Amino acid sequence: MRRMNSKICPVLSAKLQTQSNEELPVIVRVRENDTDKLNSLAHNMEGKIKRSLPLVDAVALNMNMGEIDRLSRDPNIEYISYDSKVFALLDIANASIGGNFPREIGLTGEGVTVAVIDTGVAPHNDLIRPKNRIIGFKDFVGDKTNPYDDNGHGTHVAGIIASNGYSSNRKYMGIAPNANILAVKALDDAGSGNTSDIVSAIDWVVKTKDQYNTKILNLSLGSPANNPLNSDPLVRAVDAATRAGLIVIVAAGNSGPSAKTILSPGNSSNVITVGAVDDKRTSDPSDDTIANFSSRGPTKEGLRKPDVVAPGVSIMSLSNKSSDGYVTSSGTSMATPLVSGSAALLLGRHKNLTPSQVKSMFMGSCTDLKDKQENQGAGIIDLRKLFKSEEKESPKPAPSPRPPRFPISPLPPKKEKKVASSNSFNEFILILVLIILILAITDN
Fold first, then answer.
1. Nearest 5°: phi and psi at 418?
2. Which residues, 6 or more positions from 217, have their beta carbon under 8 angstroms from its beta carbon?
3. Mean pLDDT of the 207-230 span
4. Is residue 306 packed enough to be buried (19+ CB in 10 Å), middle (13-18) or exposed (0-12)?
5. 272-329: per-residue pLDDT in tens?
6. Cis peptide upstream of residue 233 (ω within 30 degrees of 0)
7. Residue 62 gets which letter from DSSP?
8. How many Cα neighbours within 13 Å face the side chain of 155?
9. Extended strands (E) in 201-342
């Protein structure tokens, strides 16, 4: 039996023990910023490379177990992981989190772009009328140029973020009805894709963030957290996106109710990880409970997750089947875009907030559901609290002078009292002295 190799992920190590020599999809990571080794690897493996992943100093390719074993002994190779599958994680919700309050104070997410890496986004009326707000599209699956969604998951997610309710007379509006959507298709018609596809998609979003004014990245997807945190390709990719200034919001996963079931990349400390609440189809959060399917924390490394929760059961949003249709769906996938849309509202008011500031503001304004931290995080997001506390903390301009309550008549001018000056007094003394002298001379 071969010895366990710390540079090979647990999935590949298990394969290695079986003496199998099948060819498998892998991600090979070199030492950080070792571009020479990365280029050399790409050259030597010409014809086998599926994707170059510079965001995480890696390449994706197919290799048999013998090749994997030999390559792992190269001192310049940092880690080899299995290119695992990543899956999409399958009205009242708005009211449950106070979603109407921001619109009442004029916040709609206008001008803020949310990137949605998913199964694509269909051109639904609620996103393209009266103005097309799908401002960009990138297809890592079929390499098409026009927006489409052959699964429906991504369209549903985008609608929760930014539907303007055009086809429902504003009944089914998203949280940020004027926000823009950058649609990135990295999952296929079955709702799955490889880790390398997601990493490539994240890399593209980071590189084009200034072009599209992308501020937020929504990831309603996940994969089992089999790798150590610092070697997980998805975690390394979202951490790089956060360092680039993007607010990354990720689904916790649908693997509950067992503990330690948070999926990757929701196990990253830098992202906002979102669990799901069953709001019982009421706007009152007092009857809300954590959805049974919602993944629980902590992470396998002991990190406290999820960060927050949001409604994720029977959420109505856009259908990919018709340009004016709607459909309900459940999952932490549906809870995540509620938080992404809320972040767009926040950035609509304060454009320069950092990812850590946004995360702190959300966690500091949640409503406690009286559940365990590993189930609910800080609680259910509450936009009433978020924006009211944010208003209190914001510097206010000095108030303008108020008009008087009653008409005020001007006071009559005061009469000035005339007071003799010191010059007048001196003149009087001089005259008096002269008179005395004259009288003295006359007597003589």
1. -85, 125
2. 114, 115, 117, 202, 205, 238, 241, 246, 247, 248, 249
3. 96
4. buried
5. 999 999 988 777 777 889 999 999 999 999 999 999 999 999 999 999 999 999 999 9
6. no
7. E
8. 26
9. 214-219, 221-222, 247-251, 272-278, 289-290, 308-311, 315-318, 326-329
Q: What are the DSSP E strand ranges found in 331-417?
A: 366-367, 380-381
Three-state DSSP at 291 gives: coil
Q: Which residues are catalytic?
A: 118, 153, 333
Q: What are 136-165's pLDDT values in tens digits?
A: 999 999 999 999 999 999 999 999 999 999
Q: Which residue has 């707000």 as its token pair?
A: 133
Q: What is the pTM of this model?
A: 0.84
- Tens digits of per-residue pLDDT, 75-101? 989 999 999 999 987 644 556 677 777
Which runs of consecutive H residues, i.e. helices, occur in 208-294?
209-212, 233-243
Q: Which residue is listed with tokens 């003295």?
A: 440
Asked if residues 304 and 297 have their Cβ atoms less than 8 Å apart, the reply is: yes
**Residue among 114, 178, 137 nearest 339 (CA):** 114
- Amino acid occupying residue 357: Q
Task: Tell me the C-alpha distance between 266 and 273, whole Å.
Answer: 5
